[in-house]
Amino acid sequence: MIEPMQLEQMYKIVMSLREIEMTTIKEIADKAGVSITTVSRVLNYDESLNAKDETKKRIFEIADELEYKMKEKKKHRKKLRIGVIYSYSLEEELDDTFYLSVRIAIEKQLTEEGYKKYQIEDKEDVQSLSHLDGIICLGTFSESMVKRIDAFQKPVVFVDAAPDDEKYDTVVIDMKKSVINVMDYLMDKGHRKIALIGGHEMDGDGKEIVDERTQIYNSYMAEKGLLQSDYVKIGAYSPKYGYCLMKELLDLEEKPTAVFVANDSLAVGCYKAINEMGLSIPADISIVGFNDISVAKYLVPPLTTVHVYMEFMGERAVSVLAERIHSGRVISIRTTIPSKIIERESVISLW
């Protein structure tokens, strides 16, 4: 039984944390030139908010900047001209701010190094890009797009993508280890009825891109003899689909006790569905997200999630490309970035 003194101490800690969060939200509001309420609603993906996409983008970027630690500038022999290709639009970045965060990190590092950034458009030809020293590609790329990039005949690094041709440098997440860590974590908490809300998308060639997280989850649960097909729900990577797919799980006769969600944006929608059903997180159902985007800590309760080192991914992409340009290296480098679980308040132990 918790003593009154302990309750008072716990209350003070919670209020202190809330005060820190509000201070951060106020800083974001001040820098963005909007109200604290607007910041809070944007960070919580409030679909009823009537705000321009540019305003939302600015809020997400400032929130990310406040988390970003400025690095000491490095000196290089040459100020490089770097082309960037982003496969996701502004609207898609707002739905899943993982790519927004990595893009910000790339662009910050380019600025700090004094490199010239050049946004490559869809209709660019080889001649128009002859002045570039190298190219950074962030996102998802079809086979035809990779061939087009290859035709530019420049050093290239792919971020969060790994084309079949191993001649390219790549910076990727250690997805297998990351997912297994989540599953082991939930199993150690006593959960056996673990569902997955995942995502899928089509590349520019109309080919379906299968999320590694889904494949690894299926293999893990099958090996444990716990895989249930009705516990696997797949949609797009946005809060809207998290909301709809969580409702499908909650309508099952035998509900899961925990859900692993492929990204934090989906988790935002899951929270809304659970609250609307009159259920509580984590008392009725536990949630684990993925990416640890800036909004994760502001959810109620704060989201337990997999922290992906998005800033480091961006920094590493720039440094690997610069090294290849300067050295003339022929052998490709694959950088696999680890992750870690950030335990907050959205998971309960069943033991």
Task: Provide keyphrases for this structure.
434 Repressor (Amino-terminal Domain); seven-stranded mixed sheet; 351 residues; 18% strand; alpha/beta; Rossmann fold; 11 helices; six-stranded parallel sheet
Please name the fourth-level CATH homologous superfamily of the largest domain.
Response regulator
CATH structural fold name of the largest domain? Rossmann fold
Level-1 CATH class name of the largest domain: Alpha Beta
Largest sheet: 7 strands, mixed
Instruction: Work out the helicity level.
Output: 40-55%
The ordered string of helix (H) and strand (E) elements is HHHEHHEEHEEHEEHEHEHEEHEE
Q: What class do helices, strands and sheet pairing give? A: alpha/beta
Tell me, briefly, the overall form: globular
Write the layout of secondary structure elements.
Elements: H1 4-32, H2 36-43, H3 53-67, E1 81-86, H4 90-95, H5 97-112, E2 116-119, E3 134-138, H6 143-151, E4 156-159, E5 169-173, H7 175-188, E6 194-202, E7 208-210, H8 212-223, E8 232-235, H9 239-250, E9 258-261, H10 264-276, E10 286-291, E11 304-308, H11 310-327, E12 334-337, E13 339-342
Parallel strand pairs: 1-2, 1-3, 3-4, 4-5, 5-12, 6-8, 6-9, 9-10, 10-11
Antiparallel strand pairs: 6-7, 11-13
Helix pairs in contact: 1-2, 1-3, 3-5, 5-11, 7-8, 9-10
